[in-house]
Amino acid sequence: MLQGNTDKNSATGFDFTGNMTLLVDDIIKTHPFFKHIKVKNILIAISPSNGNRNGVVAKLRPMLFEGGSRTKTVRGIEYAAPEVMINGTNILYIVYFHLPRFLNHGDQKTKLMTVLHELHHISPLFNGDIRRYSGKNYAHGNSRKDFDSLVSIYTDEYIHTTAHPELSIFLKFKYNELKRKYGAIYGDMIRIPRSKNVSFQKPMGNI
Fold first, then answer.
1. Average pLDDT over residues 47-70
2. Per DSSP, what are the bridge partners of residue 90?
3. Where are the domains positioned within the chain?
């Protein structure tokens, strides 16, 4: 049986990044819709949220521009995509989970749906860009309701086919419950990488 990082958890607290990475890897291996994703090129990060129960609970940060391009030009200014390397591996996506808000957001299935929702945004080409739908609402398509219904179906299919349901058990707990169980909750933290202006201004001539 595949186990979470239980020794590390019990010794130093709950490793959110480690346990969520194991869950994401199992989703990728279990559900064919996500088979294009390579977990080694994804960084799971935590970000502090305020006490407000409303707000963003998770978000995907693609590291490259549309089509996987490393540069883009906006109003005549050229920008280069940021680069994040972890142990020599190029990170194409960062998935941020806002704590404590994410863990206090609904029941276990609701939180699992949020995980699959963010993974769904990853381009089927796995090129550092997001999955783009046609039309103005390119992130979710013409109907957010249809998008959410599809994610719900994928979540049910994962729940009924995974060989390792124990990997999502931590989603049953609210933030304070998980903290009380393990003593602390920790994970990788990284500021949102920003694109860089790489335009070169022509030197001014002598006056």
1. 92
2. 85
3. 6-197
Supply the pLDDT for residue 57.
97
Phi, psi torsion values for 86, nearest 5 degrees: -120, 110
Q: Which amino acid is at 35?
A: K
Q: What is the pLDDT of residues 145-187, one digit of tens each?
A: 999 999 999 999 999 999 999 999 999 999 999 999 999 999 9
pLDDT tens digits, 128-138: 999 998 878 88
Structure tokens at 154: 């994928």
Predicted model pTM: 0.88
Q: Residue 18: count other Cβ atoms within 10 Å of its Cβ.
A: 17
**Under a CB-based contact definition with an 8 Å cutoff, are residues 106 and 54 in contact?**
no
- Taking the C-alpha atoms of residue 154 and residue 143, their distance in angstroms, rounded to an integer, is 17
What is the Cα–Cα distance from 139 to 136, expressed in whole angstroms?
9
- Over the Cα atoms of the chain, what is R_g? 19
Alpha-helical segments (H) within 31-142: 108-120
Compute the distance between CA of residue 74 and CA of residue 207 in angstroms, rounded to an integer.
31
Which one, of 70, 40, 64, lies nearest residue 128 by Cα?
64
